[in-house]
Specification:
It contains 9 helices and 10 strands. It has 245 residues and is of the alpha/beta class. It has one domain: Spore Coat Polysaccharide Biosynthesis Protein SpsA, Chain A (Alpha-Beta Complex), CATH 3.90.550.10.
């Protein structure tokens, strides 16, 4: 199965080269990388074009002038040619076996997405290992329960593999609004077509920069409100602010 790695990029000139280097280092034989310049105001677009020039057979650069992560992901999805859309954030560092670890789960035709967790590698020790422990222990059982009872789910947006055909049937990503917890909306849209498998060993490193700049509890509250709203009747939309870069 061909995998399309879609990476939204908004003012990511300082981070994106490291992320792309890790993506290029995958041990999986068939993948492409879609870099979406999402209305950047710094030198991001030029950096992306240079990366494409160095790897023209693997990297494709797409421009999405409407700012917003779901706008960018949808532009990347439309440009992708893979059977699976792999979502990666511009500050994430996947291990070499990231793709090869996830793809075998799709042998089960009922699975529409395979989700993993974050390792906030540059955060303080208590945050890094505390959040790893919470994700490993609770994300899988909680989401299994929610899927069965409420027909909803949630996953981290920068570490998930989604069957392209399921996203197509769902009408793609919801571009109407952007908000913290947009993953709740996406997961709820694809669930009618199958189930989401959580894999606690599918881990990518990501930066804790937003927690540092906005404050841990202020940032976590936004994500928690959106995620835990899956248990209720409606998704709570927390309007997205411009993330510090």
């Amino acid at each position: 199965m061909k995998v399309s790695i879609v990476i939204p990029c908004y003012n990511e000139e300082k981070w994106i080269e490291k992320t792309v280097a890790a993506a290029l280092d995958q041990d999986y034989p068939d993948f492409e990388i879609i870099l979406v310049n999402n209305a950047s105001t710094d030198n991001t677009r030029n950096v992306l074009l240079l990366l494409q020039e160095k790897n023209p057979n693997i990297i494709k650069v797409v421009d999405e002038p409407r700012q917003g992560v779901l706008m960018a992901r949808e532009a990347g999805r439309v440009a992708a040619t893979g059977d699976i859309i792999a979502c990666l954030d511009a500050d994430c560092i996947p291990p070499t076996n990231w793709i090869s670890h996830a793809v075998p789960y799709f042998a089960d035709q009922h699975i529409v997405a395979v989700a993993g967790i974050y390792d906030y590698y540059d955060g303080p020790t208590w945050q890094r290992y505390g959040m790893l422990a919470v994700q490993m222990m609770f994300m899988s059982p909680v989401n299994t329960l929610i899927q069965k009872i409420k027909k909803r789910a949630a996953f981290v947006g920068g570490n998930v593999f989604i069957r392209a055909s399921a996203l197509e049937k769902a009408g793609g990503y919801n571009k109407v609004t952007t908000f913290y917890g947009d993953e709740v909306d996406t997961s709820s849209r694809i669930l009618p077509f199958g189930s989401i498998e959580y894999v606690s060993t599918l881990i990518v490193k990501t930066s804790a920069r937003r927690y540092r700049d906005f404050g841990f509890w202020n940032t976590q509250k936004k994500y928690d409100l959106s995620t835990w709203s899956t248990i209720g009747k409606a998704i709570i939309r927390q309007e997205e602010t411009i993330h510090p870069r």
